[in-house]
Amino acid sequence: MLIRLAGGRVIDPVQGLDAVGDLYVRDGRIVAAPEPGEAVDETHDCRGRIVMAGAIDVHSHIAGGNVTLARLLLPELHVNEAPSPDGMPFAHARWSSWEIGRLYAEMGFTTVIEPALAPTHALQTHLELADLPVIDKGALTVVGNDDLLLKLLRERESRDAVRDAVAHALAASRGLGLKVINAGGAPAFKSNLRAFSFDDEVPHYGLTSRRIVTGLLDAAAEIGVPHPLHVHCNNLGVPGATETVRATMAGAEGRPIHLAHIQFYAYEEDPAGLFRSGAETIAAALAAHPNVSVDVGQVMFGPTVTISLDIMKQYSGHPHASPKKWALVDGDAEGGGIVPIDYRAKSWVNQLQWAIGLELFLLSPDPWRCLMTTDHPNGGPFTSYPEILHLLMDRGERERWIARMPEEAKRRCGLAALEREYTLDEVAIMTRAAPARLLGLADRGHLKPGAVADIAVYDDLADRAAMFRAARLVLKDGRVAVRDGRCTGWIFGRTHALKPGYDAAMTREVETYLTDRYGVGAKAFAVPDEAFGERHVFKVEPCSH
Amino acid sequence: MAVISEAAVGWPASEAEARAAALIGRARLPLIAGLAADLDAIRAAFALADLTGAAVDPAAGDALAAEMRAFADSGQMNTTPAEARHRADLVVVAGPAALAHAVAVGLFEAAASPLYPWRTQRKVLLIGCGDAPAVDFGPTTVAVSHLDADPAHLRPVLAALRAAAAGHGLTAPTGDRPTLAAITAAAAEIKAAAFGVLVYDPAGLGALGIELAQGLVKDMNVATRFTALTPPPALNGKAAALAGLWTVGLPGRFGMVRGVPKGDDWRFDGRRLVASGEADAVLWVGPLAPGLPDWLPAAGTVALVPPGQAAAADVVIEVGVPGIDHGGTLYEARRDGLSYLEPAAPSARPRAAAVIGRLAQIIQGGAAC
Lengths: 545, 369
Description:
Largest sheet of chain B: 7 strands, mixed
CATH architecture of chain A: Alpha-Beta Barrel
Largest sheet of chain A: 10 strands, parallel
Oligomer: heterodimer
Strand content of chain B: 15-25%
């Protein structure tokens, strides 16, 4: 079937395209203009509208044991009142997998990455992802605090052994990339350390965070993982964490590295021991390290919940829980911590966090390397992306928000002086082209012939929040998934995963380790296709070599 | 009984399925109970609940209600059997059910090579487990101490332990069992742990007891590391709870009310719904259950049971057992997560998920009415 999106303003930074014209789709792919006279089966009038590739989120906690634990802890965050439309069961069940897929799609997002795929709970995470409708998914395999890897590093096993252990974890958990979370922090906390920096040593292990991260950088490069190693640095939320970020950037020694939710580290310490914006420091470091990409982790106001495998940080943050309840699992490797939080507009601390996030966007030297996230739900829900885009694209809107900031927050950051306004082209880079490129998903994030037909069409409104909140039309794999801001029914995307190879000896070593640790072998942790019944869930993506 | 048209639903409907669909499809308030089945069947049951406006109550509904309520009220600190087994230098076991779980998940088994050779030798503190339980505490356990207590009344003991460990002076005796001196000594042992684990049975303690146990654990973390381990709810109840949370945001016991999932532990208690007559048809999903609960009436009940199980119900459909007749995803206590089990003796017996799916198809098609 040939579909024409007619007369829209087509914006595709990958092609350098910003022009009014037609876009064609056939059999789920974007195609070149057909021959004259060829019949078009379906035409969508896009005149006066913006046509972009479907948006991509590289870091959003949408599935897995800790997300579900947060659902359990906070029933008040998802009181249900709206019935779901016929044929779309659970579409309005608040905070369900089904609602997440629907809400993302209605904003024009077509691919979302869960950034914390714990290998021991990979099956649950993938089962949850498979219940997320419409969008394509992927997940980042968490390594770096598990005892097998730490043992190999501690005993100075060969780089090949470390590579094979990491490749095995990636393949067995069916991840799309690699993530490390406060490397060494989890075992350090289990040994009762309450703070842990890049060059601190994990008690009893003889390993520093630096050593773990650099070992993983080597492994990622040798496996050929397209996405740069995705790093949740040490010292999240600590005044002075800018130094941790700088050390981590330098420690990468030019290798590709992605630093997650950087806003939570852009904190410098003033002489009184309070925090102030470190956005300029981070932006300068980002400019100096072209191998580094970041996502922001923007804070937005309102009640939410922090979900993290950084158990040391989550424990230390529990006194700030609002409401006053929290959960922490000392799990195999990391585990996780759930701490609810209310980012209050009347709090200068929360206002400063909000401002620092915007500073990072606006000081960013390169939209290809500074991506939009709220670290959903940690800084706020992903549904606040339209408001964030409005703030970035409209200085006047920003000034209205800044006018409400407490003076204490204003004088601790430089947001008020920043005049930059994001263009639609920059938005398309930051939310489409750049995340696709960083994930190694060459078939999306752009509108070139051959690309998957994941396309979002928006009304060109001055109110950018309204514009991006409800896409006029979304095609997923060439099928209409959203019309007039509403999901049209359940269709299902795929979960993208790598399938790296490794030495067969590692299979035996892993089996021995798992049996020794758990009393059960690798099968108990597997993610077989059979677990998904009739559903065809996975799409294997190539490693880069 | 309406005739089921093959053409209308696209498959040959058995008479039992047709009768089952008629019962469920016509009900004012169907109850889908048990969910003692693999994850596919649980998902299918949720979809049927959405279609019919049913109440859903897992076999472990009571235990889940207490545990999940306690979790939602105040949060928890927990660990896994593997972490407890390898890392804990003190294991505190509250009651016989907790001890049985500790043994079942291999907490006292020695590893072929210790993962944490720096761990100091382990101590075990038993509360209300009797003086000499027939348990091998393994070669790495150097001391087993006992706190004499009535296993049916552990909450006051946990409260006294928490108070003593927090340094609140216990001036009054706590009764004959255990003595104040024993409480004080046990509290000192708990405080001295580097990585302590309290094992307790949520079903036995109830919501308030769980909060007490967790209060003790949380208090200890101010100065040292301490966490907790609990047995999962019976009959794959944890899988039902997890799937409920990601499907409707609610753990297991809920109702679909005019298309909206509602959580209410009292309102959707299956036993109460049946006793009050509110639920006028029941689908029991129980391929993993040893039998039907005694509160289920035969009239109006459709039972999906494992092969050969006798059941007093209007409609009985034998289905395969996950992990034996067919593969399936179940909650595995030892590795503390969802695992896919391959079939041990594959058979052609129908899967519960497929049967439930067909019931939904018939009801949706309107053929059963």
